[in-house]
Amino acid sequence: MLKATLRSFLAHKGRLLLSALAVLLSVAFVTGSLIFSDTVSRTFDRLFASTAADVTVSPKEDLDEAVPSGRTATLPAALAERVRRIDGVAAARADVEVSGLTVVDEANEPVGPTTGAPTLGNAWNPNERSPVKLTSGHAPRGPAEALLDSETAGRKNVRIGDTLTVIAAPGSFQVRVAGIVTFTTTNPGSALIYFDTPTAQTKLLGRPGTATAIAVDAAEGVGDDRLKQRVADALGAHTYDFRTAGEQAESDVEQLGGFLDVIKYVMLGFAGIAVLVGVFLIVNTFSMLIAQRTRELGLLRALGADRRQVRNSVLTEALLLGLVGSTLGLAAGIGLAAGLIGLMGLLGMNIDADEMEIGWATPVAAYVVGLGVTFIAAYLPARRAAGVSPMAALSDAEVAGVGRPLRVRAVAGAAVGAAGAAALAGCAVSRQTSSAASLLGLGVVLTLIATVIAGPLLVRPVIRVLGGAFPALFGSIGRMSQRNALRNPRRTGATAAALMVGIALVGGMSVASESMTASFDRQIDKTLGADFVVQNSNFQPFPPEVTEKVRGTDGVGLAVRGRFTPVAVRLPDGDRVETTAAGYDPRLDEVANITYAQGDSAAALASGHLAMDRDFARDHGVRVGSTLPVRFPAGRSAELTVGALTDQDSAEGFGTQGGLFFGMGTLERYAPGGQDSALYVNAASGTGDGELRANLEETLDPYPQVQVRDLADYKQLVQDQIAVLLYLVYALLGLAIIIAVLGVVNTLALSVVERTREIGLLRAIGLARRQLRRMIRLESVVIAVFGAVLGLVLGLVWGVCTQQVLALQGMTALAIPWLTIVLVVVGSAVVGVVAALLPALRASRMNVLAAIAHE
Question: Which residue spans traverse the membrane (predicted)?
Fold first, then answer.
């Protein structure tokens, strides 16, 4: 049996090739994501471990910034002198590091990275742990000199002696490049600019004698944990945060982890789609191969092979397929990881591909995925093969299930579909976001399974409609192509299912994204009353001098500041909620249209007062007049009175969870040192919008990071952000289509082999080569469109239910992207034509007599 299995596998290797490609893609994305994330993680582990001080003392912060506030936490630089006197300390230095700087060259072009990585300003304190070393020029001397990293200098063509303008929170200032520093470790993509310590303190922090951290080196023989305890005892354990080198490195890795997780999970999403669609392809391939080998399997049974041996023979073929696909996929995954590392290099993150990390878990995952996919997909066809009777060797019977009733599928599909529909219905009526999202996920999974199970039941009624015009348009050729698609509902359903999965995903996400865009557009129209909004291009805060210059611009009648801060609120029901609150200037009503359930803007912005969303307040037992303990950064606390409750469709623009906002006076009292995130600007009387925009753009010309947006620009900005998610979904669709095309090609190719004699007879009675190719193309088109229709129906249901979940967050508009739907259907027909090209060509080249004699 083993010899027979190996001979069979080698005999059908061409037919199994496309299935192996599906396995290869699945494994490649899994291994590529694991290798890439492991390599980047290990690289940054080494970077942070080599640059972290033995002990780091930093300001105590117990609130995370979900939205940047522009505030830099500091501590006294004089602490370094106190630390130096502690037993076991070899050295201590006051460090200054500030992110979010903007640096421009003499042509007013930004010098920093454009990939989202920050520009960091630092005090020049060279030591053995520094990530850079001075390679040309000299160290900065005084407030007019600075150092720039070599990669930024090379990328932006900056040389020693050039003048740069640094835009920091305390204000803008110019420096001359006195030297170039070169990274001794991995550059995470940031731009680095160094100043002497007094300049960094005054120009970056705005406060002489301050620092952002104290770096402590241990004396020989003193462990990090022991030194940390001594420093904490000396300074006060609850006054600052104390971290050992290992803890600091772990904290830095955690901050980077979000970025790495995004890449990892995106790639695993591609892998999941490849696995799911590949399963359908493999099931169909083995089902058809077994159907074509019915007599062969029957002969094996007649020679003495039992059911178990036949089943194991088919499963062995599948495992061989999985083994080949996994091995090739592992190699492709290594190449994919190398490509991603190269891409990161283009984006400014330099990772050495020679240090690629391939842990033991990666090949294990590769073979588990590859062998697991093929084994699971081939199990049902293998069971069917084991049921072949020895008498089949004497007949032309097949076990593809053409004539078997679909009652079991009908019952199973109806049961699973009813459960999925109930979950989606529950999602639509739920009032809690968490439970609605859980029901949505369950409903999506169950309805997908139900559609796959019941797909063959839908083949005959749907394809009769989709191909109904074929006889009229193409005559007998059209009729035969329609009947060929109807001949085996199981096969047609499984082939179409691969395409259905990708299109359902795109349909659902297209409805969700279109609805989000419409909801934001409606909310912006409803809420934003300003003529213009001045914002940083990447939503980072901007220096106060920008606000001052905008207010002094000709034609500006009103400029209302918007600023954010993290807060923790203790609510009457006992919950402690950490969220982001916003602060606004008086006259907010002139630039924003806020609907209040109780109170008004005057009460909301009054000193010591705040406003919150009505639904959030109701859920936590808050009323107008309630006094809430609010904790601000740096340990500041206040008792604030609820002055107003808002009734917005969304709290967007006025904070995050809870929609908390208060007056700018309250914010500056309890969270000083922040920067403005937006200015809402109205024109003065007699000034037109065009004139004001031109004046604002002239004022902001020295600040290339800040942009002027009107209502249409603001909407486009939101749409662009949502589009990023949609592009990812389209990429997933592209992958699903690639594998689905392989499936259709495989199905048609095997179908051509299966119908060799029939094709020979048709050719013998006068069917032309061109007519034969058209017949196979039409069959392919109707199968592809059938999958698209199922996918779109399923995707629309998912999208509508997703919008119901989003409505709980204020995004109440429902929008259906009809153009996308039409394009998907047309695209599916094109996919069908493309997939049929090779099988149709092969069929048309058959020798007529050899085809008639084929068994």
Answer: 265-291, 318-344, 364-382, 439-459, 465-481, 493-512, 724-753, 778-798, 818-838
Half-sphere exposure of 564 (CA within 13 A, CB side): 24
Backbone conformation region of residue 221, classed left if phi is above 0, alpha if psi is from -120 to 50, else beta: left
Residue closest to 791 by CA, chosen among 448, 551, 342: 448
DSSP character at residue 200: I
Per-residue pLDDT tens digits for 237-274: 788 899 998 888 877 777 665 566 666 677 777 777 77
Token reading at 15: 């037919």
Collect contacts of 353-362 with beta carbons under 8 A, ≥24 apart: 355/39, 355/42, 355/43, 356/35, 356/39, 357/35, 357/38, 357/39, 357/41, 357/42, 358/35, 358/38, 358/334, 359/34, 359/38, 361/34, 362/31, 362/34, 362/35, 362/38, 362/330, 362/333
Higher pLDDT, 659 or 41: 659
H/E run at residue 532: strand 532-536
Compute CA 519 distance to the chain's CA centroid, rounded to the nearest angstrom. 21
Q: How far apart are CA 510 and CA 448, in angstroms?
A: 17
- Other Cβ atoms less than 10 A from the Cβ of 849: the count is 11
The predicted-structure confidence for 105-120, as pLDDT tens digits, reads as follows: 988 888 888 666 788 9
Q: Which phi and psi angles does 46 have, rounded to 5°? A: -65, -40
Where does the pLDDT of residue 539 fall: very low under 50, low under 70, confident under 90, or very high at 90 and above? confident
CA gap 332, 32 in Å, rounded: 8
- Per-residue pLDDT at 824 exceeds 50: yes
Report the mean per-residue pLDDT for the chain: 84
HEC-encoded secondary structure of 295-340:
HHHHHHHHCCCCHHHHHHHHHHHHHHHHHHHHHHHHHHHHHHHHHH
